[in-house]
Design brief:
Layout: E1 6-7, E2 12-16, E3 22-25, E4 30-37, E5 40-45, E6 48-52, H1 79-90, E7 108-117, E8 120-127, H2 137-149, E9 154-161, H3 174-179
Parallel strand pairs: 8-9
Antiparallel strand pairs: 1-4, 2-3, 2-6, 4-5, 5-6, 7-8
Length: 183
């Protein structure tokens, strides 16, 4: 990723990191992209950090990707195949301040798929945050929900933020710990 600034091509909604408050960044402002993982963008504008959603990438001069992700097969997928795709999709969700996906961070506690007819499923996810007071919780939960809904067989997705058990660094995968210099 280049350190060159980009000029916002249009007004764009963003979330202030780490509090999660929604604001509008104005067309013409200079933004520095500090993280581009999983389709969302962490930018610094006027010394403040913001998260811009995947569907607003065009404001940064980046082409917006299609919404629904085909499952890769021509017929119905089994629940086991879909579960694998769900976990791979969840690995494309990132905390805007930490360059590790929410699965490897240990933030996803449970994901349950329920058939709802016609080869369609409902996904129920229980996830937590690294800190209960993190204002980015609703933003991350929405990102998880959007990733799930983008999978063709999933028609409903519910994401619940839970605090029991409390998250700790021991919940991270070894790869995450290594990436963050904790090993």
């Amino acid at each position: 990723m280049s350190n060159a600034p980009v000029t916002l091509a249009r007004d764009v909604e963003a979330a202030v990191v780490p509090v999660g408050t929604k604001v509008t960044l104005m067309k013409g402002e200079e933004a520095h992209i500090t993280q581009s993982l999983g389709g969302s963008y962490t930018v610094v504008v006027n010394g403040n950090m913001f998260r811009i959603a995947e569907n607003d990438a065009d404001a940064l001069g980046i082409e917006v990707q299609a919404k629904r992700v085909p499952t890769g097969s021509t017929g119905p997928v089994t629940q086991e195949q879909l579960e694998k795709q769900v976990w791979e999709s969840l690995k494309t969700c990132y905390d805007p301040e930490i360059p590790v996906n929410v699965v490897d961070l240990g933030l996803i506690y449970d994901c349950h798929l329920t058939p709802i007819g016609n080869d369609c499923y409902k996904a129920d996810v229980k996830m937590t945050l690294t800190a209960p007071g993190c204002g980015m919780g609703p933003v991350l939960a929405q990102d998880v929900q959007n990733k799930l809904i983008s999978l063709e067989p999933i028609d409903e997705a519910n994401v619940e933020l839970v605090w029991d058990p409390p998250w700790n660094q021991g919940m991270m995968t070894e790869a995450a710990k290594l990436q963050l210099g904790l090993m």
